[in-house]
Design brief:
By secondary structure, the chain is an alpha/beta fold. The chain folds into 2 domains: about 20-145 and about 280-315, Response regulator (Rossmann fold, 3-Layer(aba) Sandwich); about 145-270, Rossmann fold, CATH 3.40.50.2300. The chain is built from 11 helices and 14 strands. Strand 1 (about 30) and strand 2 (about 35) form a beta hairpin. Helix 2 packs across helix 10 (about 280-300) and helix 7 crosses helix 8 (about 235-245). The longest helix is centred in the first third of the chain and has 17 residues, at about 45-65.
Length: about 350
């Protein structure tokens, strides 16, 4: 099979080029003890978020550093409280990889970690008018091309219509103040503009939640029983949509898309219920982000001298569809990759807003 993965980008299966001695002999081992690796995520029920913890623990094991996983359960106030407690617990002797719930949460988090002197990176969410370069300890804002993800999955869905690119869809949105949700929905809108034969009948928000997506899809199917496809902003919600379609006797006839690359999505693609997804390796995200923070703390990289394009930027995901799903799962899901982190900017794919 012809490889269509981006092997030169996010998922290069090489040895992890990190030296325990580099950090143990530097600032990762201080008078306060070893630096704690902290990941701050939504929760452990979504495999995409849960894999942040998997990646961080693997890195902690390699470096001999403690790891703490903070789960907000989609509650921003809990996220703030947990971070404050972690700062108190470690005395600020920590680095953090943070996936904020929503864009407005970023500034309070930035101020909190700035006061603590803790280097950190954030994923996905950031208000466009907030500049990472205004902060000393905020190393980088990193995200995937959410607009491109929404666009890709929309077009994969449109291709399945009979005839192609002519039909009616409904859409399930994520958290409405979340940058990923906003970007992916914009990508859908861009695809719709290019394909006037496809009509978006209605969309509903489901906050990344499977049950809420199930209920929303069920209501949409009652209103539009002749729909041709369901576009979902992530795989978690895609699973809810598929369950609603099964109950309506439409699974496999009306197809679904998602994003994240959850294991259930790959099974759904194989089973003929889902068209496509885009894999975002949050194991890699955690290891990469925490390594960047450790190197900032250690002095290996000088954060203030980094060009702005390396302070707010995008990395690519891997597009998965019915053509490549079997090979992809065999090579990248059935085993834990080891990542080449020797060049922090090897996967740079453009500046982020």
């Amino acid at each position: 099979m012809k490889r269509i993965f981006y092997l030169s980008t996010i998922l290069i299966v090489l040895s992890l080029v990190l030296s325990v001695g580099l950090f143990a002999g530097g600032k990762a081992e201080t008078a306060k003890g070893p630096v704690t690796l902290v990941v701050c995520i939504r929760g452990l029920d979504n495999p995409y978020h849960a894999n942040y913890a998997v990646g961080a623990r693997e890195l902690g094991k390699k470096l001999g550093l403690p790891v703490d996983v903070l789960t907000s359960e989609a509650n921003s106030q809990k996220q703030f409280a947990d971070l404050r407690a972690e700062i108190a617990k470690t005395g600020g002797n920590m680095v953090a990889s943070v996936d904020p719930n929503e864009a407005p949460d970023v500034v309070p988090i930035a101020k909190m970690l700035e006061e603590a002197g803790a280097y950190w990176v954030n994923w996905w969410n950031k208000p466009p008018d907030v500049k990472v370069t205004d902060y000393k300890y905020w190393v980088a804002h990193i995200q995937f091309d959410a607009v491109g993800q929404g666009y890709y999955n929309a077009n994969e869905l449109f291709k399945t219509f009979d005839p192609p690119n002519r039909g009616k869809i409904v859409a399930i949105q994520g958290m409405l103040a979340n940058n990923a949700a906003i970007g992916r929905f914009q990508g859908l809108q861009n695809a719709l503009k290019e394909q006037p034969g496809v009509t978006l009948l209605q969309w509903e928000g489901a906050e990344w939640d499977t049950t809420k997506a199930y209920n929303a899809t069920k209501a949409l199917l009652a209103a539009y029983p002749d729909v041709d496809g369901v576009w979902c902003a992530n795989d978690n919600m895609g699973m809810g949509a598929i369950q609603a379609l099964k109950e309506a006797g439409l699974a496999g006839k009306v197809l679904v898309t998602g994003t994240d690359g959850n294991p259930e999505a790959f099974d759904a693609i194989k089973a003929g219920y889902m068209v496509s997804t885009e894999f975002q390796d949050s194991r890699y995200q955690a290891q990469f982000g925490l390594t960047m923070c450790l190197q900032a703390r250690d002095g290996t990289i000088d954060v203030e001298s980094l060009p702005s394009k390396y302070r707010s930027w995008m990395i690519p995901g891997v597009k998965v569809n019915r053509e490549n799903v079997d090979e992809f799962v065999r090579e990248y899901i059935d085993k834990m990759p080891e990542y080449d982190l020797s060049d922090l900017f090897a996967n740079w794919a453009g500046e982020a807003p």
